[in-house]
Write a structure and sequence with these properties.
Elements (H helix, E strand, L loop, with lengths): L1 E11 L7 E6 L21 E4 H10 L5 E5 L7 H13 L3 E5 L4 H7 L4 H9 L2 E4 L20 E4 H7 L12 H5 L3
Parallel strand pairs: 2-4, 4-5, 5-6
Antiparallel strand pairs: 1-2, 1-3, 6-7
The structure holds iron/sulfur cluster.
Length: 179
Amino acid sequence: MKLQVAGIVRESIVDGPGIRLALYVQGCPHRCPGCHNPQTWDPAGGTAMALSDLQKLILGANGIDGVTFSGGEPFAQPGPLLSLALTARSRGLNVVLYSGYTFEELWEKSRCDSAVLGLLQAGWLLVDGPYLQSRRSLSLPFRGSANQRLIDLAPSLQAGRAVLWESDFPSRDCWSKIE
Ligand code: SF4
């Protein structure tokens, strides 16, 4: 199995709490005006990478708190990303997901797509919704516009509604510096 990849950052501090291995997937149907990564829109662009190589990358990464899947649109490739999320979880890493879909849209998709449900279940936090230029903000951690939410996935899936994340992350001192 392969994943269409736009880029990889081995130690990111802007894609979720702590230090993270960030995987940016290729392909995005949302086409938000003002998107900073329009080169990720074409699903045929980027590089097709073998899942086994990406699993090795995750298993061999040291000094990170977790893994982030961003884009592009991660939920356009939920099957391979679910596999990678489970690899990350197997070594105690948390998983942060970005999506141009809202939690409510993904919740609806998850009813008929087991990979979407699995990926949501394997995730820790979800940054949801499209980038809206009219609500652009430079002061929100890990988000580009104020409509985007930091959602705590476990209680959200239990309740069937978005539950916002209230941080108790041990590396808070680290990421609060970039708020
Ligand atoms: S969802 Fe993200 S990658 Fe896709 S168009 Fe919007 S800002 Fe760009």
